[in-house]
Design brief:
Blueprint (H helix, E strand, L loop, with lengths): L1 H9 L7 E11 L9 E4 L5 E3 L5 E8 L3 E7 L6 E6 L6 E6 L9 E2 L7 E2 L8 E4 H5 L6 H4 L8 E4 L8 E4 L13 E4 L2 E3 L25 E7 L2 H4 L10 E6 L5 E14 L31 H4 L3 E14 L2 E13 L6 E16 L2 E16 L11 H7 L24 H7 L1 E20 L2 E20 L12 E25 L2 E26 L9 E26 L3 E12 L8 E12 L4 H4 L3 H4 L4 E7 L20
Parallel strand pairs: 1-7, 13-16
Antiparallel strand pairs: 1-4, 2-3, 2-5, 5-6, 8-9, 10-15, 11-12, 13-14, 15-16, 17-18, 18-19, 19-20, 20-21, 21-22, 22-23, 23-24, 24-25, 25-26, 26-27, 27-28, 28-29
Helix pairs in contact: 6-7
């Protein structure tokens, strides 16, 4: 509150400066518009984005006689124009050239501040919004498939709510988490996959709560040197998601509707032999009848999605809001997934050197899941038809309604028709960001983030079922509650220490707190008709809690020589409550170098320049770590000596 009072009380009003409204467009070399291109004043937080036609409008408070306006777009070289207070220029057209190596692209992940790609001594991958939305999937993690070199993105199940596994650096732990660190607009978010009802490989992960239509771009770093600034959270790489934001100008309304169908690409071959496993026909001499259970299990699934967004801005305020509804069927009958969500973001310029951004994302989803051997190896729809005989008709008896029992495996059609496995998730991600630039060379960024969600799962298997061991019914209820708070502050200072030598110093700190609680109860041998856990003759309950805190700091120094040679050194120190007393503090150093050899005079004056217009050498080394796989309270357990 004191900081905000200072900003409002002592912030210099815009009226104290002359103002100039600049309009224009951003195009490629052929004059085609570049929608979404960013236009900003170098060294400040003032900026906007181009609309669908590449047009933009930007209000410039001019405290100085001249400001430098810059336009950027992914895959193109940036362009700059000087705007002088008295030259009467009000329209600017930026024509950007293709950047084959994308050396001018601005990235943030692993750097804690916007940095040109040409300065990096490590690799970083970028996935644009266009690449994500053309993937034809409603899940962000699945939309990354095939777009990241060296990354493994694998779907965990065929359920429409099933998650995907993302591996950037392989599996580096036996018991610990192998997922990368996920961030949304600078806020660390949770992507755990709690299998509350043990579906047998169909666990959801929380990245599915995000809508790909809301994403502007995704940045991914894999190497330890790139992830060193995130310390003990980035052993498996970093994935940072940047969402869309508003821009100055008239409101822009976007509506997208999608209808899709899905089906099994290839079914399994079916045994069509006219004899049983012993080589015998039926007692009356007729052929043994065979059934393709896949005809009863799989279907042509349909899905629909509706998305609407509005963005715009006037004066010192920019805004963005969106809403979406998704309903997808699974290719396995009776499986489905629904998600409703909304996102808002407001960027408010408090003064020419201070901007406050507030945003939030809410989503609610529910799913009907089909289990696949989660309780026992002989339990599940898919295991039932893959490993069971196909000599019986899986449909229920028309008189009694009972499903045939094949003995050691559950009837797959009964699993689909009678078992009820559902999950519901409510999630909220919110943040507030304060960006200060009190001096032309100094910037201070503070982010406060919140990630919280509640997941509830229910499982019910009715009595008189064909599932071995559960013939008298089964019920389970499980909940998972999660809360995470993030505080991050980054201070950046740039200084020309000599002609053609620029120094950039970054200092930052982190304070992260999280807690989670899981409670589950299950009952077997249920009372007739009842579906509750308490109606079981045998009831078992369990509870798990987790609470931990992490705090750390880092410093990074980058020196640029003639915008050609870039040297970087950094170090981070972390302390976590889950570490032992003697290992409380962990140290993570990194170093990197990048050399644009194509800018050297001998290169530009030779035939090499005709073959390789851009050529960069880079090298980096660093360390990163991960949280221990041992739970915060695992040492407080009972031991039975018998």
């Amino acid at each position: 509150m004191r900081l905000l009072a200072f900003l409002f009380g002592f912030g210099i009003p815009a009226a104290a400066f002359a103002q100039l409204t600049i309009t224009g467009a951003v195009t490629d070399e052929r004059g085609e518009p570049l929608p979404g291109a960013s236009i900003g004043v170098v060294g400040t937080t003032i900026g906007t984005t181009a609309d669908a036609d590449g047009q933009f409008a930007l209000v410039l408070p001019l405290p100085a006689a001249e400001v430098l306006l810059e336009a950027r777009f992914v895959g193109y070289q940036s362009a700059q124009r000087a705007i002088r207070q008295n030259d009467g220029l009000t329209t600017v057209v930026f024509q950007l050239a293709v950047d084959a190596l994308q050396l001018d692209e601005i990235v943030v992940t692993g750097l804690s501040a916007a940095t040109s790609r040409k300065q990096l001594g490590h690799a970083i991958s970028t996935v644009s919004a266009r690449q994500l939305t053309t993937a034809g999937t409603s899940a962000l993690d699945k939309a990354l498939t095939g777009k990241l070199a060296g990354a493994l993105v694998q779907q965990n199940s065929g359920n429409p709510a099933g998650g995907a596994t993302v591996r950037l650096r392989g599996t580096s732990t036996v018991l610990g988490d192998a997922d990368p660190l996920y961030m949304v607009d600078g806020v660390v978010v949770n992507n755990s996959s709690p299998e509350l009802i043990r579906l047998g490989g169909g666990a959801q992960n929380r990245l599915g709560d995000l809508n790909p239509n809301d994403v502007e771009r995704v940045e991914v770093v894999k190497g330890a040197a790139a992830a060193a600034l995130y310390g003990s959270r980035a052993n498996n790489g970093v994935v940072q998601i940047f969402t869309k934001r508003g821009s100055l100008g008239k409101p822009q309304l976007t509506y997208t509707s999608r209808f899709s169908t899905a089906q099994v690409r290839k079914t399994l071959a079916v045994n069509k032999a006219p004899v049983d496993n012993n080589g015998d026909k039926n007692p009356d001499g007729s052929d043994v009848q065979r059934f393709d259970h896949q005809d009863f299990i799989f279907r042509r699934a349909a899905g629909t999605e509706h998305y609407v967004s509005v963005l715009g801005g006037a004066g010192r305020t920019r805004y963005f809001a969106s809403g979406s509804y998704l309903a997808d069927q699974g290719v396995v009958a009776n499986s489905s997934f629904r998600r409703m969500g909304g996102r808002t973001r407001i960027d408010q310029e408090l003064s020419p050197w201070a901007t406050l951004s507030v945003g939030g994302h809410f989503s609610f989803s529910n799913s009907n899941d089909v289990p696949n051997g989660g309780l026992n190896s002989n339990y599940g729809a898919l295991t039932g038809f893959i490993f069971g005989p196909n000599t019986y008709d899986p449909t229920p008896d028309p008189t009694t309604g009972a499903y045939p029992n094949q003995g050691v495996l559950a009837n797959p059609l009964e699993v689909i028709d009678r078992y009820d496995f559902t999950q519901e998730v409510s999630r909220y991600i919110g943040y507030a960001q304060l960006n200060l630039a009190p001096l032309s060379r100094l910037s201070i960024d503070y982010t406060l983030g919140l990630d919280t969600y509640d997941q509830t799962a229910l499982a019910f298997i009715p009595a008189r079922t064909s599932a071995p061991g559960l013939a008298n019914g089964f019920a389970r209820r499980a909940t998972f509650d999660f809360l995470q708070l993030n505080n991050d502050i980054h201070v950046r200072y740039q200084q020309d220490i000599a002609p053609n030598v620029q120094s950039t110093l970054l200092v930052g700190g982190t304070l992260q707190y999280e807690k989670g609680a899981t409670f589950s109860a299950e009952g077997k041998d249920l009372s007739p008709v009842a579906q509750t856990v308490s109606s079981g003759a045998t009831v078992v309950a369990s509870e798990f809690r987790s609470e931990k805190a992490l705090y750390g700091g880092f410093v990074q120094q980058t020196v640029a020589f003639s915008d050609q040679l870039f040297l970087t050194g950094a170090a981070r120190v972390d302390a976590s409550s889950v570490y032992g007393k003697d290992q409380r503090w962990q140290f993570y150093p990194k170093a990197g170098a990048a050399y644009l050899i194509s800018k050297a005079s001998f290169w530009q004056n030779s035939a090499l320049d005709d073959v390789f217009a851009d050529f960069k050498l880079r090298a980096s080394i660093g360390t990163s770590g991960g949280q221990t796989a041992i739970g915060p309270f695992d040492r407080f357990t009972n031991y039975n000596a018998s």
